[in-house]
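Notebook B, p. 112. Complex prediction, attempt 2.
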Amino acid sequence: ETGVTQSPTHLIKTRGQQVTLRCSSQSGHNTVSWYQQALGQGPQFIFQYYREEENGRGNFPPRFSGLQFPNYSSELNVNALELDDSALYLCASSSRDRGPPTQETQYFGPGTRLLVL
Amino acid sequence: DQQVKQNSPSLSVQEGRISILNCDYTNSMFDYFLWYKKYPAEGPTFLISISSIKDKNEDGRFTVFLNKSAKHLSLHIVPSQPGDSAVYFCAATGYFGNEKLTFGTGTRLTIIP
């Protein structure tokens, strides 16, 4: 069973640029959630994708967008980068279809560290 | 609006002793609670969870206690080992567990050999 993988591990961009981050979910999982972790803070929920549809969104502007593919991998796109977008971006996968009473756990990838200059 | 709070940013414990990490929450709709452990340059690793229908869950050296009336949970690690040194995050979510996670700000645990 392969775990959650993310790429790249880190990257540096300049203000105003666009970035795409990638995530492969754990085998058997059909749901991907993205989180932003700023320094000294806990992860903040950006959005979740289930069966290629956005399924919940946190308090992030529309320049944060995403995709999920038929193989359940996912992308996070951020346009018009700002200095405050510098953070660790985490992807987590889980399964939605098993239903109660199973309570699903989200498993995280290693993250992508983004620095915006 | 911090719905999940970890009021101790850091904690130091002697090796072999008990480590107790605390977490408080304000949203009574939370139904499933999790603890994650995070090493530098890695993603959070799932440690243990508890459903709101229980008040205790054990897994080896790790026990999580939930007090719903006080909206408080704690993680006990016994005995503490040097490899337990990490940042611990408390998280909460709805009934199904795969909805959005709301995290606390973390507690850095240092185990002193």
